[in-house]
């Protein structure tokens, strides 16, 4: 019996190193990374088993980067969320976000809200961008909502009040060779299978994704049982 793959999550890492190794500026790596987002989203939309694709785009810690890089990332994200509307319509992709959007610019927030509205009825795949996202931050905000609602602090209530009800991750992939979570989906990764590849995000291909999924399918998931 092979494992079902409903929720795939990816830490898209290595854009900066990809660019540096080519003698380019880091932002060129982020530009190239946008193309990978398109490829991988398209692939997932064409594979009905996958219901949710969560992509780590900007962490609560990424504000530490030089202002110029942060500004450029925000510009690229704005452009992506706008231009992807075509792909979202063509492939039935619903656009969602997790993370605290409040510190983002009004322009970016408006584009995000508009794209969410336009794609609300699409039901093939949810593409969830983690933006100004931190796993700890999300858990804290969820617990706060549970308290505000006067509910009991338990796993079900905390899960329900996370940023989105997309649920547990089945497979989490991180590119670029780093083997850490960097504050990504701490709650939802509890029983996820993890895969790490040395490939930098701009070079990450559909063929490699397929091969990682194939390996995931063969693994034995035990969830604490025997
Ligand atoms: C991932 O690539 C993209 C973001 C974190 C926004 P990096 O920019 O972290 O690339 P490296 O890790 O420096 O190579
Ligand atoms: C994690 O990558 C965040 C994103 C991919 C958006 P980082 O490159 O920021 O993580 P660290 O600093 O290497 O842990
Ligand atoms: Mg990195």
Description:
This protein is α/β, with parallel strands linked by helices. It has one domain (7-134, 170-217): 3-Layer(aba) Sandwich (Undecaprenyl pyrophosphate synthetase), CATH 3.40.1180. 43% of the residues lie in helices and 16% in strands. The protein has eight helices and six strands. The chain has helices at 15-20, 26-45, 67-83, 85-91, 106-119, 135-148, 155-160, 206-218, and strands at residues 7-11, 52-59, 93-98, 125-133, 171-174, 193-196. A six-stranded parallel beta sheet has the order 3-4-2-1-5-6, sandwiched between helices. Helix 2 runs parallel beside helix 3 (67-83). The longest helix has 20 residues, at 26-45. The two termini are 16 Å apart. The model has no long low-confidence stretch (mean pLDDT 97). Bound molecules: 3-methylbut-3-enyl trihydrogen diphosphate (2 copies) and magnesium ion (MG). One 3-methylbut-3-enyl trihydrogen diphosphate (IPE) binds at residues 12-17, 58, 62, 73, 176.
């Amino acid at each position: 019996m092979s494992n079902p793959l409903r929720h795939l999550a990816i830490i898209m890492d290595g854009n900066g190193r990809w660019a540096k190794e080519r003698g380019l500026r880091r932002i060129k790596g982020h530009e190239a990374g946008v193309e990978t987002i398109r490829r991988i989203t398209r692939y997932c939309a064409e594979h009905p088993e996958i219901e949710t694709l969560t992509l780590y785009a900007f962490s609560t810690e990424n504000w530490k980067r030089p202002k110029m890089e942060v500004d450029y990332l925000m510009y690229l994200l704005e452009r992506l969320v706008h231009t992807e509307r075509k792909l979202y319509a063509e492939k039935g992709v619903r656009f969602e976000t997790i993370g605290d959007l409040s510190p983002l610019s009004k322009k970016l927030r408006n584009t995000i809200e508009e794209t969410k509205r336009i794609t609300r009825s699409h039901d093939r795949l949810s593409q969830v961008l983690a933006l100004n996202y931190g796993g700890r931050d999300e858990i804290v905000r969820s617990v706060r909502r549970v308290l505000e609602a006067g509910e009991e602090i338990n796993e079900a209530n905390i899960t329900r009040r996370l940023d989105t009800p997309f649920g547990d991750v089945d497979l989490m992939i991180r590119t670029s060779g780093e083997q850490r979570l960097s504050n990504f989906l701490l709650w939802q990764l509890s029983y996820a299978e993890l895969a790490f590849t040395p490939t930098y995000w701009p070079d990450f291909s559909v063929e490699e994704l397929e091969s990682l999924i194939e390996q995931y399918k063969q693994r034995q998931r035990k969830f604490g049982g025997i």
